[in-house]
Amino acid sequence: MKTRKDAPVDRGFLVGVIFFILGLGTLLPWNFFMTATMYFQDRLNTTEWSNGTVRSRKEYYFNNWMTLLSQLPLLVFTLLNSFMYHSIPEKVRITGSLILIFLLFVLTAVLVKIPVGNMDRFFSVTMATIWFINSFGAVLQGSLFGLVGLLPQKYSAVFMSGQGLAGTFATLAMLLSIYSEAGKEAAALGYFITPCVGTLLTLLSYLILPHLDFAQFYFNKRTTNYEVETNHELLSGKTIAPGNDKLNGDANGFLPNGNGALPHADTDPETDTDGSGQAFLSLESTDTRDKKLSVKQVFQKIWVMAFCVTFVFVVTLSVFPAITVDVTTLYAGTKWEVYFIPVCCFLVFNIMDWIGRTVTTVVQWPRKESRLFPALVVARVIFIPLVMLCNVRNHYFLPVLFPHDAAFAFIMLLFSLSSGYFVCLSMSYAPQLVEPKDAETAGALMMFFLALGLSLGAALSFPLRVLV
Questions:
Q1: What phi and psi, each to the nearest 5 degrees, are found at residue 239?
Q2: 20 to 30 A from 291, CA-CA: which of 8, 322, 325, 384?
Q3: What are phi and psi of 247, to 5 degrees?
Q4: Distance (Å, rounded) from C-alpha 468 to C-alpha 390?
Q5: pLDDT in tens, 400-430
Q6: 385 preceded by cis ω (within 30°)?
Q7: At what angle do helices 14-34 and 90-113 cross, to 10 degrees?
Q8: Are the C-beta atoms of residues 283 and 268 closer than 8 Å to each other?
Q9: 327 DSSP 8-state letter
Q10: Euclidean distance between CA atoms 319 and 367, whole angstroms
């Protein structure tokens, strides 16, 4: 969707800034749990004593379960949101989700200060928290994707750029906690308080939107304004040209058929003032144009973009972070070992993913009609064996062909850059393939397929990790 000429001015690009913050806030929960894997693994690997003897450590496969239990609720609740978003007011869905996410992060921060003797119990509580946070996050993301789909295309790119920065924000917070050399407990507490503040800022930003004329101009198109504008333009002498979704007309306000007459319009004696057979198009003929398409009909228009966003995340989540966090540095025993995964895995991924998303605001290639677009998306499957052939800890079946830290960092650079770029293009292109009145449905559907890709990728990470 392009910016309408009659739209109010987005002063200071304030709506864009707000949607950037909203994008940042939607992925803070996932990224803060993902980048905190070392904290959770450290607590889960604490030596347990029983009757004066050391109990054997249990392998929890935290990264795999965290990824899976983050994405399954995202899939389920995004699907529910796609079909039920009309039943629950948008404000309730968004504000309610943000408040509950905030409370769950407070719980996570409190647990840092509470010793949990039974590691199974701590693991179960952590997994339950991850499940519920991502359930509410799914509703939040689906609602906001539908909302931003009503705005011009560049706002979708800005929103996803904010999502891309969420990972960088979380990674920098983790690096700061490591660099501060504070106690583990104090560093973890400060780390989990940060998303609490970020979630409150996201909520405040959303509450400002109703007071901005630019945002409300586009949001109101979902309801009566669309019909009022259509009827107003028809009454002013404009008609709908065959095969054109816009309202057009010649100088006389009639469809061009040689003499200005409407070939299929019924002549009304009250409007046919000159007996020429000319008449305005009946307002009743616009009923089908105002009616929204069904979910199935919208899917038929956007299925290529739905496939692309699904496949991108299947490839990405199949190895990140479940396998990438187990890559080890050649310089074990040095101070660099502590920073290796935070920098070469999380920081490189999140910065390049954000750059990939941001680039789409100025470059959109290939075009949405091009067959090259899905072909390039499928070609990303090459990154799966490339990552698995790096210096992964406890590898049994595959050789290490890329042992050096620089090789791993370069693979992560291309891997994450392509992921962010193709995801953002897919999500930006989808609303353009339908009418403005169906953009919200398209956005909600794309969020479902995004979640489907994340879930399938998370499930695939289990067998891939075993194959290494």
A1: -130, 170
A2: 8
A3: -90, 120
A4: 10
A5: 999 999 999 999 999 999 999 999 999 889 9
A6: no
A7: 40
A8: no
A9: B
A10: 28
Name the token pair of 321. 């972070």
Torsion angle defined by CA atoms of residues 222, 223, 226 and 232, in that order, rounded to the nearest 10 degrees: -170
3-class secondary-structure state, position 10: coil
State how beta strands 49-50 and 53-54 pair.
antiparallel
Comparing CA positions, the residue from 163, 148, 215 lying closest to residue 13 is 215
CATH for 12-48+57-221+291-467 (1.10.10.10, 3.20.20.370, 2.70.150.10, 1.20.1250.20): 1.20.1250.20
What element of type H or E holds 213?
A: helix 213-219
Burial of 294 (0-12, 13-18, 19+ CB in 10 A): exposed
Q: Does residue 321 have a cis bond before it (omega within 30 degrees)?
A: yes
DSSP state of 210: G
The per-residue pLDDT for 4 is: 64
Candidates 412, 454, 434; CA nearest to 171 is: 412
DSSP character for 341? Answer: I
Cα separation, 380 vs 421, in Å, equals: 12
Distance CA 329, CA 402 (A): 11
Domain boundaries, the chain: 12-48+57-221+291-467, 238-279
Question: How far is residue 450's CA from residue 427's CA, in Å, rounded to a whole number?
Answer: 9
Neighbours of 43 (CB within 10 A): 19
- CA geometry: angle 123, 347, 420, nearest 5 deg: 95
How crowded is the C-beta side of 384, counted as CA atoms within 13 Å? 19
Q: Phi, psi (5° rounding) for residue 392? A: -80, 135
**Alpha carbon distance 108, 195 (integer Å):** 11
CA 113/CA 128 separation, integer angstroms: 18
Q: What does the alpha-carbon distance between residue 360 and residue 16 come to, in Å, rounded to a whole number? A: 15
Buried b or exposed e, range 411-447, using 16+ CB within 10 angstroms = bbbebbbbbbbbbbbbbbbbbbbbbbbbbbbbbbbbb
- Residue type at position 201: L
CB atoms near residue 73 (< 10 Å) = 21
**How does pLDDT run across 118-174, given as a tens digit for each residue?**
788 888 998 999 999 988 988 898 788 878 888 887 898 889 888 878 888 888 888
Q: Are 173 and 194 in contact (CB under 8 A)?
A: yes
| Amino acid at position 70, single letter | S
